[in-house]
Amino acid sequence: MSEQNVKDVYNTLFRVESKIKPTTYPIHKRLNFDAEFEDLYDWIFANIDLPTEGKILDAGCGVGYGSFYLSNRTICSVLGISLSEKEVALANAISKGKGLEDRVKFKVQSFDESLSEKYELIIAVESLKHTMNLETSLKNLQNSLAPKGKIIIVEDYFTGKNEGSLTRTLAKDWVLKEIFSVEDYTEHCAQSRYKITLHDLNPFMVEKNIFGLWSRYMMLHVLTMFGAVLGKGKFWKIMRGGLALDILYAREEMAYQVLEIEKT
């Protein structure tokens, strides 16, 4: 597994999703907030004290949905980074079309590449799971925090006791070196330098029928194997990984949570 493999995953998703979704669209989960909040970012702004000026790094920005949201709610300058050149090209085109190119920019970059700026906020929504080395990525992001800065990591955290066939399928299909728990993240944060707060989003997860999930999973499993024979089926494989994740949630082996890391 490599960053090139991760890029291929998101370029594959882009080729399909960019044709059927609005110009800029969220890549994160849709949650059930009962009309209290419209989106995950609304919840974050209402529940976490975020900086409203300075610089923001959107680590794993997709096509810029979160970056543009943050630019609308703050006077911060925003840099979004992604391994996908296709996502970055679209996000920059949107920024230019909105007249925001001086304040909201996007570039192709890894979590592990040195960052020349210091950021008041670094946010990573369902993206750090793809790191090739979690300790390296976290240290790089922490080193890029301004004094009193925050890292917000929204992620699928493994809570099961043992990894099995579903976690192996998820890792393979989504190009994950490991399936990480919250503890895997927090152990790489120096407790004396950072205040760590965990926020639970599980109550807002949309419930799904596990039998229906298994039926769709098996169908996609067959399609993926058939596609592999034809040298195709990359999108089906990614969808199979998504269903494996949904089943793990239904089995209460995953938790959708927000890890807030504040530099003290």
Task: Provide a quick synopsis of the model.
This protein has 264 residues and is of the alpha/beta class.
What's the total helix number? 9
Overall form? globular
Q: What's the story with the biggest beta sheet?
A: 7 strands, mixed
Q: Can you tell me the number of structural domains?
A: 1
What would you give as the CATH superfamily? Answer: Vaccinia Virus protein VP39
Topology:
Elements: H1 3-20, H2 40-47, E1 55-59, H3 65-73, E2 77-82, H4 85-97, E3 104-108, E4 119-125, H5 134-143, E5 145-158, H6 165-174, H7 182-186, E6 194-200, H8 210-229, H9 234-250, E7 254-263
Parallel strand pairs: 1-2, 1-4, 2-3, 4-5
Antiparallel strand pairs: 5-7, 6-7
Helix pairs in contact: 6-9, 8-9
Word description of this protein:
The chain has helices at 3-20, 40-47, 65-73, 85-97, 134-143, 165-174, 182-186, 210-229, 234-250, and strands spanning 55-59, 77-82, 104-108, 119-125, 145-158, 194-200, 254-263. The chain is α/β, with parallel strands linked by helices and 264 residues long. It has a single domain, classed as 3-Layer(aba) Sandwich (Rossmann fold). It has a seven-stranded mixed β-sheet. Helix 6 (165-174) packs antiparallel against helix 9. It starts with a helix and ends with a strand.
